[in-house]
Each structure stands twice: as structure tokens, then as C-alpha cells.
Amino acid sequence: MTATLERPPAAARPVPRRPARWAPPVVVIALLLVGWQLGVTLSGVAPQVLPSPLRVVEQGWANRAALWTNTLPTLQVTAVGFALSLAVGWVLATAVDFSPWLRRALLPLMIASQTLPIIAIAPLMILWFGFGLLPKVLVIALVTFFPIVVGLVEGFARTDREASNLLRSMGASRWTEFRYVRLPGALPSFFTALRIGITYAVTGAIFAEYVGAQAGLGIFMNQQKNSFRTDLVLAAVGVSAVITLALFALTFLVQRLVAPWIRR
Amino acid sequence: MTATLERPPAAARPVPRRPARWAPPVVVIALLLVGWQLGVTLSGVAPQVLPSPLRVVEQGWANRAALWTNTLPTLQVTAVGFALSLAVGWVLATAVDFSPWLRRALLPLMIASQTLPIIAIAPLMILWFGFGLLPKVLVIALVTFFPIVVGLVEGFARTDREASNLLRSMGASRWTEFRYVRLPGALPSFFTALRIGITYAVTGAIFAEYVGAQAGLGIFMNQQKNSFRTDLVLAAVGVSAVITLALFALTFLVQRLVAPWIRR
Amino acid sequence: SAGSGGSGPETGQKIRVALDWTPNTNHSGLFVAQREGWFAQAGLDVEFLPYNSTSPDTLVGSGAAEFGISFQDSFTYSKGAGADITSVMAILQHWATEIAVKADRADIQSPKDLDGKTYGGFGAPYEVPKMQQVIKDAGGTGDFTSVTLGTSAYEALYAGQVDFTEPFVAWEGIEAQLRGEPLKSFRYTDFGFPDAYNVLLIGHSPWLAAHPEAARAFVQAAQRGYQLAADDPARAAQDLQDANPGAFTEPELVTRSQDMLAKDYLKDAQGRVGPQTLDRWQGFSGFLVDSGTVVDANGQPLRARPDFATWFTNDYLGQPT
Amino acid sequence: MKISVRDLQVSFGDLRVLDGVSFDVAPGEFVSILGPSGSGKSTLFQVLAGLLEPDAGRVEAASSAYMPQKDLLFPWRTVLDNTTLGLEVAGMPRRAARAKAGALFEPFGLSGFEHSRPDELSGGMRQRAALLRTVVQDRDVLLLDEPFGALDSLTRTAMQEWLDEMRARFGWTVLLITHDVREAVYLSDRVLVLSPRPARVVHERTIDLPHPREVTAAAAVEVELRGALR
Amino acid sequence: MKISVRDLQVSFGDLRVLDGVSFDVAPGEFVSILGPSGSGKSTLFQVLAGLLEPDAGRVEAASSAYMPQKDLLFPWRTVLDNTTLGLEVAGMPRRAARAKAGALFEPFGLSGFEHSRPDELSGGMRQRAALLRTVVQDRDVLLLDEPFGALDSLTRTAMQEWLDEMRARFGWTVLLITHDVREAVYLSDRVLVLSPRPARVVHERTIDLPHPREVTAAAAVEVELRGALR
Ligand SMILES: Nc1ncnc2c1ncn2[C@@H]1O[C@H](COP(=O)(O)OP(=O)(O)OP(=O)(O)O)[C@@H](O)[C@H]1O
Ligand SMILES: Nc1ncnc2c1ncn2[C@@H]1O[C@H](COP(=O)(O)OP(=O)(O)OP(=O)(O)O)[C@@H](O)[C@H]1O
Ligand SMILES: [Mg+2]
Ligand SMILES: [Mg+2]
């Protein structure tokens, strides 16, 4: 390679500008929607089977009050449930990191917990915890705590041995070593897991409403499905997709605040 | 610290011996089971609500033929579905790593895909794909590809910039750089994600059977639930837990073969 | 009598009702009684439990609810397995589900033509024995393939993925008409299969014993609600929708369904709403027990028919007016 | 010219690092670069290796093998496979690459460690492995960023002699960053001295002594260069 | 004795690294360790810092501040916060620790980089930051593994002088691994020379010259030590 370059002093780095950043998803989603609309219109498929996107939007807008009323409880349950999930995930991962005994004892249980089908435990949940917030929150925590734990446990375990040695040479206790090396070292892995977990949180909440709920997007979807209103089911799916996307984006924001050093 | 040590040459490192390794999970699980058994016996709760573990084992054993018949299709669907999920995950993550445009275009779609409730897409799946293997395989792939993609994408993105530079200085193409640096560098993150994904795979398969199946653990659970046989539902849950634990353990084996350098 | 000691029901008696599904026309009498204030007049504080995936048989059987909606088929299995429940009222007097195939299936003229075909079902234990029996009654062998599909069964039927399924004629059946997917259906009883109470109101047996007055008050208010639904389906449909704002986005489905129930299903041969007979119970539940698929609390098939008279009661119903 | 740099300017944010650096390197020439820590020597190499775009200036550089200051051995490859990296990237079959790199383990004092993992090497051994990975690529131009910094004098002398011999044999063009003035004098045809940050070339010295050099003969040059570094 | 090592043996698998190393270090003494690359110097330090259990032998070592050969700056901390690490671990409030470490940025030539991220430093600057992180801990004993390897001669001399002065002022006991014989002679009360792997102490030389030392005065010692390293 014989490269020749002659450039004026440049202050700005070539970061894609706003339209360029937003263009790709907008273009692809627009293409998908147009294709869908055309497909539905041309095939003349019944709206109960597959409504057109225009119909979904139109009917969703017409029923925006009901959608909104049902979005709020789902949001609330998601927030509380995921907060619990984070707390449980951190506590378990930390405990497991400090004690290999606990690690061996708890990991199989945690994996097993992920195989509990809601269908099997829902009756127990209701009998034990009634119809309040609690069972739903527990379902969300159950569905989402596992990625958090795995991400943290593996993040902790991959800490540079030499970095741990440095801390030990400074006379650091296990806890100090954890705080100064293992904890920050596990953050990249944690944020990856957080993004996986939070994606399941909204679906988890909708799912949790099957355990028993007065209102919520899951209830709404079920009602509309039983009334054969596929368009409104999809409108609710759209709402939950938007919520999930927003939460996903939020994790990047949090990451930039909490761990700005993580290179992307 | 003034440490004094005088030790004979020691060949062996202090690795916990077999009984010590297996003791913790066995002890904890035994304690749980005994507590559960006692709780059920003392409270006299109806077996439809919560059967005792002894009863679950006993009835599970009595119905082992039916359990086995229903385990096989679930295993098959899990294997095929997760294989597809891995393939899709790798292809998407690689594509997205090569093209920031694709990354921005596809990531929102992938997140949105995770919010599709099976209840909404099951009818479409049936319409389009019948109720052979395909729709179930697709549901599993849908449920499990996302952790794989996120783990890989973030693993690729966290590649040491200086390592990439080194490869570029050797005249490596983007593809060669990917193969020599980004790919191996992302493996730790991939294996973490694999463990998360594979845990969801069996649950996903059971879930997928609700889309439509002749046999499988999900069908079995549903039938037994409708027959108020909570004991047999839990026996099936136990089987799926064992499968999941085995698959989880398998990931460590694969990791040791594929990427023995990952420190744990 | 026990419990409340024979004086009128304590005011504010709390009663929890477990529904089997999202609110629909099978529940209309309960919502009518609520909207018309009849529960309140009886001094009852009735709460409909929120939608949940737990079977009402389990909820009522464990005392998590005092009353619930059940079906004679599922009731037979949970009662056989030892659930502490009693059927206190028949909501639908007949089978309200039928074997349905697409109307253009010239090859299927009778259930006997279903041999070798594919059934899209819901994973309940009674479906296959029932279908087999109906097919045999119609002259077939009863050999068919069964696929568990849940609520996707209807879509699968329309798409030709399965050959027959078992819809509620007053819900999915009407929806199929509204959608323009005509169905052809066969009544089980036309081929000699025993009739059954498709939908039941059930109560927690210990609670019934302890609170006979409250039980009577509740059942009679519900009965009155269903009576109104049978007499004035339009008003019942309105009450149902008013009680569940936002739940029904297809009003025509509700009114037509309510009309159909009023016409053919809510009243017995004598025009009464609610009563049950031992004959009916022995017919269908006896058939299920005989099929060997009903098991007891220990998982052993019931060997002999139980005394079905202990499974239901008409004692809480009001006298025919 | 193998390398031609004119008026090179590089800044990191507000920090001006290279402030108009200019020099040429002729084919087969061995040029050492001396300069204070943090002056911008590694930055200059990154530009020459095509890894960093300068803010201004004109750079022409033939394709080179670059040894960064950090050793950057990959934990997922054995030491041998780390050293074949450049060859593999260039498309050489794995077996041939291993044979070629393996032959250098003996002179580099690494024999017996072919199949070790990099973190089983000492600091100096890692540095030698990184140097091996660079020179085995047989490129015309070598950019070596402090290749001998972690070596004891004996090992260092051996490596220097090896490099001197090889470049004479193959006519390599070498650009070497070092902090050891004696090393620069011993090896180079020419030495460039950079100023503290922001860096310019403040001194240039052609060394016309025959190879291999006697330490004593070059003492005067050494004193002159030390002076230029003040 | 601040440090007492008797018959120390360390192997990695089949690789025997330390083969009966014995020596003592008196309080306030400055001892340098010379030895071929890969002989086991860093391994010895790891045993002294309590990070590696020897296979046999007797080690007594007072609590020490250890500077490993790799700089190990944490990417999640600014340069300043990396240098306060040892102080924070010892329980010093963050503000006080920052003040204390911050005062050394000027003499270490790092001022202006307090709030940079470690990967924005040059190799030599990273090394100085790691040294700063070690000495600021004010421990009685310092274990320094090649602290000046990546520095140019001027910066190196400045750092050496600083260290010489400080240890005189505070009576630090210092154990230093270096490849620079002149550095060892300039700074040490005593020099130990290790053999190639498996390492033993093959030469020991007490240097009784007054401080600060003239380079010329120590030339004879330098020649002797170079001989021992052969
Ligand atoms: N990626 C970066 N971002 C910001 N500043 C940087 C970056 N890389 C280098 N610098 C700064 O540029 C200056 C020169 O760095 P460089 O690594 O080129 O020095 P050097 O001459 O190689 O020093 P040394 O001899 O210590 O290796 C330093 O002040 C350093 O802090
Ligand atoms: N973790 C390890 N596992 C296996 N072998 C190791 C390990 N650490 C060091 N060694 C080996 O021990 C020997 C001594 O290593 P050490 O790092 O002590 O050398 P050193 O004297 O510090 O060398 P240098 O001057 O190059 O830094 C080397 O041959 C090295 O390969
Ligand atoms: Mg440098
Ligand atoms: Mg070393």
C-alpha cells in the first residue's frame, strides 16, 4: 500500500449524521409495512387471519383509550417485576461469586427454575399469592432474572487473574477485590445480559397476566383474540414492541452513565 | 504480612474431590424435597393443588412410558429448533457486525420480534406452515435466537481496537480480521449467551407445542392439567428440568473443546 | 341449618366467582344479576375474579373462589380426582359444542366419514373418547388423528390443516358465519350420544354447607339473571357489554350469540332455567367414567360409577314461577 | 523512497501530538527514532501503518510489518500460532507458516514454548514472540516500536545482532523506536531525534560506520545524540 | 530482615523456574536483581508478594507494595483514580487519596493527564502511572518489576533520581528488577545476579559508593556485573 493523503485539519470525526442514523430502520420497517399492506390487499385474506397494517393502526387508534388503559398496568408490572429481577439477580450472582459451594448448590436450581412452565405454576401462584401484583411480579422476575445471573456470574468469573493479584498484593479483602475489579470487570457482560433480560420483561409481563389480571395488554390481547379481533391483538403487540424498544434503548443510556468506559 | 511457609513439593493442586463437588446441589435439593414433602403431608393440601414430591416421582414412574413417548418429540423439536436458532443467530450477528447499516436496520426488528406473543402468531404459523415440525422449530428459533445475536453482536463490538489494528496492519481484509480477532474474541460472550439461550430452548419447545402438536411434553402437561393431574404435570416439569440441566452442562463441554483458552 | 343459622344472609357477604374464560355470553346471567343490582339486593358482595389461566374447578375446589363456571366434562374429571365442588345450576341445558367441518367438504356427510381424518383439539382428556364414540354411534370405526391446537384449532380448520374440530356454536360458530367461512356441523345427540350440561355453575362444597342462605341467595340471583337472558336476550347482551367496557369490539357477535343461547340452550324442556337431572349426569358423566379415563385422587381409574346424585343439587334454585 | 513524511500533524482532541514532522527513508535504510516518552513516536508509527488518519500532512509509506509497543498476543492461540498470524493472513498455508515461524524459535530463545499459551510466557519472552511475529512476515519495511525494551543485555545483544544480519542479508528497510541511544547508534544508518510533545524532528544524524560496529568507535556519536535529547 | 528467602523452589508443571534461590534484604536496603529474560525474576516477586505458593522453601517478607511487569491500569478508572487504587484499598478517603497521588503527577511527568483514560496514555506514561500507583502507597518495602523499561534516558534518569531521593528520605526498602546494569549500579546497595532458568543466585555484589553516584566511578562494577551475566 502506498497511501497518499492530504487533508485540512479536521475537528469532527465522521459520525453518521441524524438522518443517516435513523434511515436504516425507517426504510426497512417502511418496506415491510408496504409489503404487508400490498400482500393483504392483493390476496384478500380475511382480516381475522391477517389484517392490513393500515387497519391495525386505524383500529388501534380508534381503541386508543382501551389500549392506553391496558398499557399502564402492564408497564407498572413490568417495572416492578424487572426491578425485583435485577435485585434478585445481583444478590444471587454476588452470593454465588463469593461461595463456590453456593455456586454449585444454586446454579442447578436456577436452571431448573427456568423450566417451570407458567401453565403448571400459575394455579399455585394464584392459590398462594392471590390476584394482586405479587404473582405477576414474581412471574416476570422468574422469566428475567436468569440472564442477569448468568451474565454477572460469567462476567465475574472472567476477571483478569493478574488484576485480582494486583488487588490482593495491596492487601484487599475478597470484598474489596470484588468491588474494585470483579464488579466493574463484569459490567460489560452485565449490560449484554440486561439487554437480553429487559427484552423478555415486557413479554414476561404479558405472559404474567395470564396468571391472573384485571387489565393489561395481555388481558386485552386475550379478549380481542376471543372476539376474533386480530387487528386489535396486533395493535397491542405494536404497543408492546414500542415499549420493549424504548427499554432496550434505555439500557444504552444507563450504560453510558454507569460505565462510560465500555467501548462499543 | 510476614508469611512463613515450608511445604514439600506438591504435584496436585487443591481441586475439590468428587463428593465435595456434587455435595452442594444434592444437599440443597434434598433439603428442598424433604421440606416440600413435609409441608404437603402436614398441611394436607389436595394433590390437585400441590402433590408431594414422592407422589410426583411415583406417578411419574408409573406413567414413564407416556412420559418417554412425549419426551422424544420435544427433544427432537428442541434440537432442530435450537440448531436453526444458532444458525440464524450467527448469520444475523455476523451480517450486522459487517454492516452498521444492517445493524441499525435489523436490531429494532429483532427486538420487536421478541415481543410477538405466541398467542398472536400461532394461528398464522398454522396457516402458513401446518403443524408439522416447521412451526414448532420456528417458535423455538424465535424464542432463543435473540440472546445469541445480542451476545455475539456485543462480543464482536468489544473487540480490542488495538488487536484489530494489528490485523489491519497485516493487510487483513475485514473478513480476515473478523475470523482472526472478532470471532474468537466474541466467543466468551457467545458462550454466556448460549447458556442463556439453551435454557430457554426446552421451555420454548414446550411452549411451541401449544402451537399445535400430536405429542410432546407440552401436550402431555396440557392434557394432565386438564385432567387435574398436577402430579403428572410436575413429573413432566421434572423431565424438562433434567433435559435443560443436561444441555446447560453440555455447553461447558463444548466450550472446553472449542475455546479451551476461556478462563473460568 | 349450619353456619349463618337460618337468618337471612349476612349483608356484605363476600362471594368470589371464577370465570373460565374472558367474559362471554355463557356468563351473561351473572353480569345481568350484577348490573340489575340483584346481588346487592340479596346482600351479596360479588366479585368476579380477574381473568386467569387457573381452572375454576381448582379455584373453587380449593376455596379460592366460592363459585365458578365449569363444564360437565371437566367437572367430571376434577370431581373424580377429589375436588370439593358441587354443581349448583345448569347454565346451558344441552351440548353447545358440535363437530364442525368446513361446509364445502362434500366428502364428510356424517361423523362416520371422519375416520382417518385429523381432529384439531384442545388437549382435554375427554375429547378423544367423545369423538370416538360419536363416530362409532354414526357407524364409523373411531380411528382418527388428534392434534392439540388450542384456540388455533379454528384457524387450522378454515385453512384446511385439520378436518374437524369442536366449536361452541354460539360463539365460534356465529363468528364463522360473520366471517363468511360457512361450517357444517353435527350434533352429538343426533347419533345417540348422551346429552350433557355444557356449562355449569359450581360451588365450593364446604362453603355451601356452611352458608346455605348466602348460597341460595347467590344462586337464585344468578338464576334470575339467566332467566332474563333467556327472556330478553337483547337486554342481557347490553348488560354483558356494559359490565365489561372495552372487552367486546364486535357487538353483533354478542347479540347473535345471546339470541341463540336464549332460543335453544338456556331453558330445559319445561322452559325452566337452571335445574339438573340425575339422568343427564348419569348419561354423559357415566359414559366418561366407563371409558376409564376418569381417575381418582391416586391416579387410579374409577372402577365403578360414583353416586352422581351427590355431584349436583337443585336445592339452591328458586321455585319455577 | 520507501517512506516519505511531509509536515505531518496529529492531534487527539485538544492535545497536539505531532506538529509538522517530515522525513524520508530510503530503501534498505535503517533509521532509529529517539524521543521523550509521550512525544508521539508510537502515534507516528500508527500513521505510517495506515491505522490513524493524520489531521494534515502528506504520507507515503510502502506496505510494512508493524510491531506495536504492546505485544498483543492472542490468548486463543498458542505462541507458535501467534507468530504465524501475519503469514496466515497473507494466505500462507498453516503448515508452511508453522514451519517458517518455528524455525525462528531457536534463535529467538523461545524453543520449547511453541505450544504454550501466551500468558505462560515472561515479559521478555512475549516481546520476542511479538517481534518474531513481525519479522517472519518478510515485508520490505519493518516498523518496530521498542522491540527490545524488556530484554536483558545479553538477550538484547543477540537479538540486535540477528536483526542486523538479517536486514543486511535481505535488504530490509527498518524504522525502529528505541530509548536506548547505544542501540540506535549500534544499528542505524541514521537517527532522528524528536522533540517533546508536540513533536518535530529536532536532530538528524547519519552514522557512517561499518558493520558490525564496535561500541567504543561510536561513543562520540552517542554523546552527541544524548546532547540532542536534552 | 525485611525479606528472607531460603532455598525457594517453584515449577510450572514440568518447567522448573526457581531452583533453590536464597537471599536476605535488610531494612532500608536497595537490592537490584539482574538476570536473563525468562529466568524467573517476575516469578520470584510473585512469591514475595504472596500471590504464588512456592513448591518448597521458606519465605519471610514484610508487607510490600508491588509493581507488576504489566502496568494493569483499569480501563474503568481515570489515570488519577488508577493511581489512588492502593490508597483506597488501604481505607484512605477518596479525596485525601486523590490529593496525595495528584501531588506526584508533576514529578512523574503526568500532569494534565489526571482525568484521561488509561488507553490515552503512551507506553512510557502508563508505566509511570503504574509506578506512581505503587510508591504512593508508602509501604516499607517496594517490589518494582522493570519500572523504567519503557522510558527514554532523560525521563528515566529523572525517575531514578526521584526514587533515590525518596528512599533516602523515608528509608524505604527496595527490591528492583532491571535489565539495565548501569541503572542497577547507580541505585543499589547490592546487586543479585540470577542464572538462566532454572534460576539460582550466581553472583552477589555489594556496592559501597556514596550517593548520588557518578557514572564513571561505577564503571568497574558495571564491567564486573556484565561479566557475571554471561
Ligand atoms: N488514543 C489516544 N487518545 C488520546 N490521546 C492519545 C492517544 N494515544 C496517544 N495519545 C497521547 O499522545 C501522546 C503521544 O503518545 P505516543 O504513544 O505516540 O507517545 P510515545 O512517543 O510513543 O511515548 P512512549 O515512549 O512513552 O511510548 C501522549 O501524550 C498520549 O497521551
Ligand atoms: N503462569 C505461568 N504458567 C506457566 N509458565 C509460566 C507462568 N509464568 C511464568 N512461566 C514461565 O516461567 C519462566 C519464568 O518467568 P518469569 O516471568 O519469572 O521470567 P522473568 O525472569 O521475569 O523474565 P523477563 O525478564 O522476560 O520478564 C518462563 O519460562 C515462563 O515461561
Ligand atoms: Mg510509544
Ligand atoms: Mg519478568
TrEMBL record, chains A, B:
Record's subcellular location: Cell membrane
Domain ABC transmembrane type-1: 71-258
Gene3D superfamilies from the UniProt entry: MetI-like
Pfam families: BPD_transp_1
Mode of membrane association: Multi-pass membrane protein
UniProt cross-references to InterPro entries, sorted A to Z: MetI-like, MetI-like_sf
This protein's record includes keyword Cell membrane: yes
Transmembrane parts of this sequence: 26-46, 74-93, 105-131, 137-157, 200-220, 232-254
Record keywords, A-Z: Cell membrane, Membrane, Transmembrane, Transmembrane helix, Transport
Primary residence: membrane
GO BP of this protein: transmembrane transport
Domain of life where this protein originates: Bacteria
A single Gene Ontology CC term: plasma membrane
Family statement drawn from the similarity comment of this UniProt entry: Belongs to the binding-protein-dependent transport system permease family.
Protein name listed in UniProt: ABC-type nitrate/sulfonate/bicarbonate transport system, permease component
TrEMBL record, chains D, E:
GO MF term (any one): ATP hydrolysis activity
Keyword Transferase found: no
InterPro entries found in the cross-reference section: AAA+_ATPase, ABC_transporter-like_ATP-bd, ABC_transporter-like_CS, ABC_transporter_ATP-bind, P-loop_NTPase
PROSITE patterns (alphabetical): ABC_TRANSPORTER_1, ABC_TRANSPORTER_2
Pfam families registered for this protein in UniProt: ABC_tran (PF00005)
Domain ABC transporter: 3-221
Domain of life per record: Bacteria
Keyword Ribonucleoprotein on entry: no
Entry keyword set: ATP-binding, Nucleotide-binding, Transport
Record's protein name: ABC-type nitrate/sulfonate/bicarbonate transport system, ATPase component
Upper classification of the organism: Bacteria, Bacillati, Actinomycetota, Actinomycetes, Pseudonocardiales
